[in-house]
From TrEMBL:
Domain SGNH hydrolase-type esterase: 11-180
InterPro entries: Iah1-like, SGNH_hydro, SGNH_hydro_sf
Transmembrane segments: none
Protein name: SGNH hydrolase-type esterase domain-containing protein
UniProt organism field: Saprolegnia parasitica (strain CBS 223.65)
Length: 207
């Protein structure tokens, strides 16, 4: 029997890794504050990674949490997958969608009681970064939404929600302070809507 505070994992790329940065009010920092004494929020954001990098790491995640499975995993990938050809991070659109399905299927089989939340890549400010494009990021966001619909997993569509808001990005790709605050609000709202039993106010204080 698993006892103690639930585990919430934020899995992703540099945007998630930066989510642990208090200097920019990282979205994961704010989630940690929301769940203090109620759940442990674990950051598994890896700068530069794509869905292609994460798929072979799934057995490691299974071993890491075999003693205490997570209650919720957020999957925030696609910003690097959507890099324009010939960028080395580029992952073809169909491969990206297939990898998301592998992530959900494998993690779901490993942790049967875990819940999942997909997060689409955010918009791109085309005027500040040349290795990405907003239109291309939109295709990957749509693919993420489609995978969520097919697998019956809720999706936070950052790409749609943050359109025409370049002030949320520090460099055309990554969230700044305002972007992290906006992302946190959308994630927390989705948890409350789709998994109310895992909302901060619904969980007891463990300590």
């Amino acid at each position: 029997m698993v006892v103690g505070a639930p585990i919430i994992v934020t899995l992703g790329d540099s945007i998630t890794q930066n989510g642990a940065n208090p200097d920019i009010m990282g979205y994961q920092v704010m989630l940690t504050q929301d769940y203090v004494r109620k759940a442990d929020v674990v950051n598994r954001g890896c700068s530069g990674w794509t869905t292609r990098d994460w798929v072979p790491k799934l057995p490691l995640l299974g071993r890491e949490w075999s003693h205490k499975p997570p209650s919720l995993i957020t999957i925030f990938l696609g910003a690097n997958d959507a890099a324009l050809v010939p960028e080395p991070q580029h992952v073809p659109l169909e491969t990206y969608a297939g990898n998301l399905k592998i992530l959900l299927q494998t993690l779901g089989a490993t942790f049967p009681d875990c819940r999942f939340l997909l997060l689409t890549p955010p918009p791109i400010d085309d005027t500040r970064i040349k290795s990405r494009s907003n239109a291309e990021a939109g295709k990957y966001a749509a693919a993420c939404v489609a995978v969520g619909a097919e697998r019956k997993v809720p999706v936070v569509d950052f790409w749609t929600a943050m359109q025409n808001m370049p002030h949320l990005l520090s460099d055309g790709l990554h969230f700044n302070r305002a972007g992290n605050i906006a992302a946190h609000a959308l994630i927390l709202s989705a948890i409350r809507q789709h998994y109310p039993a895992l909302a901060p106010e619904a969980l007891p204080s463990e300590f």
